[in-house]
Design brief:
Blueprint lengths: L16 E5 L2 E4 H21 L8 H20 L3 H25 L11 H23 L15
Antiparallel strand pairs: 1-2
Helix pairs in contact: 1-3, 2-3
């Protein structure tokens, strides 16, 4: 007779502790961050180290993602200086979320963006940073961007 055990669906969100390294705890969350960073570096190295005249399929995919994000930033952020200064930040965030979700599709891997602490920290840091940049660039006129045109005050 076969024995089946029922697992909890919330079991995938438990953070496993593996030990310490130089005083820092090694958990499944930190291992996933390291794997995301390594996969991002490997992809960028493969893209930048190839000297082909005719681009490969991998290079075409990489360039299409790059230009997709670049056009998205240029269309939504008006002003050449603003869009060029914000593009590396938005591209890095997009690639981090893309690689973390793609690694989460691999069986027995850990999805970093499934943790509320990671998602909340990323969103709050970016919201504070973008608000700071808006106030720095537009001074107090930044808050007038939230008021629709034609409303009397």
């Amino acid at each position: 007779m076969l024995m089946y055990s029922i697992y909890s669906p919330l079991e995938q969100y438990t953070i496993l502790y593996f030990g310490n390294f130089c005083g820092l705890p090694i958990t499944s969350l930190s291992v996933s961050f390291i794997l995301i960073l390594l996969s991002f570096l490997v992809v960028n190295h493969m893209y930048s180290s190839s000297n082909y005249v005719i681009p490969t399929n991998f290079m075409i995919i990489n360039e299409s993602i790059y230009f997709f994000i670049l056009n998205l930033v240029k269309n939504n952020i008006k002003g050449k200086d603003s869009s060029n200064s914000m593009f590396p930040l938005i591209f890095t965030l997009f690639m981090f979320i893309l690689f973390s979700n793609l690694l989460g599709l691999v069986p027995y891997f850990y999805t970093v963006t499934g943790q509320l602490a990671v998602t909340g920290t990323l969103s709050s840091l970016f919201m504070i940073g973008i608000t700071y940049m808006g106030i720095k660039i537009h001074s107090l006129k930044f808050f007038s961007l939230f008021i629709p045109n034609g409303i009397s005050i």
